[in-house]
């Protein structure tokens, strides 16, 4: 119950912050929006990196009750600081009924349903992450401090991915970028076989160094994979329902992630993997790596480019989401690859 309340509070704070980013982006060009979102993600990744490592160290140094008490001070600071925020109301306030009607009408447009459907499908892919976690704890005997170090390094890898997109890939086709990063993620997932089979030791690579390299590469590519969807969502949201519209798009993704968790559990059982037996782990990794390619066949649901202008009540979505030519629509064929979501291993 306490975890549910805590998650609800974090979700509300996150939605408010993201709505403010969307509102800011309404007055900016695509390049400015990309920089704004990159800065927002950068601060979030840096904070996550610091807190992940700090919590993993503190949990070995003090009782859990004291750690929870210390962590509760941060939300308290947020509550106090909220009273000092000065809000600038730039739009007339809508009633709940008006917001609901506006949201339903906008969600009903094909240009919104297609990206939402794609977000759901992209997160349906099963993952071997949980099985690998138990392999690392039961077989490799990794301790909490090491996992905290992994999380911190992965966060910095995500930060690099954010800036790679912002300064290198921001003008690329969304569809082609997703295809190539997806293929690369699939190949990176295969690298976990090296760890499970212990080939890395034969190559003289320690387990920790290999896991850090593998997981960091996945995080970096996954961030490049997912950031265009974030920016596109910013451009799709109409005025007045920024947080609701953005939440709807990401709800589709998180719903897919929940289904993926159940699929992953069923596959883990089907391959005979348990806390003491990892004989089928290699087969599970191969299956999940191949399954990562499935969303490519639905990439035509995404617009080829990010809309140049924000949506409003009078503007139709079709012009700004006009499909661009793309080879192999529906069943893509390419000349020559998020994950989470960014999805780990």
TrEMBL record:
Principal location listed in the UniProt entry: membrane
Transmembrane listed as a keyword: yes
Compartments reported by the entry: Membrane
Keywords: Membrane, Transmembrane, Transmembrane helix, Transport
Membrane spanning stretches: 67-86, 118-135, 147-168, 177-196, 248-272, 278-301
InterPro entries found in the cross-reference section: BT1, MFS_trans_sf
Topology relative to the membrane: Multi-pass membrane protein
One GO location term (cellular component): membrane
Annotated spans, Disordered: 311-345
Family in the record: Belongs to the major facilitator superfamily. Folate-biopterin transporter (TC 2.A.71) family.
Protein name: Integral membrane protein
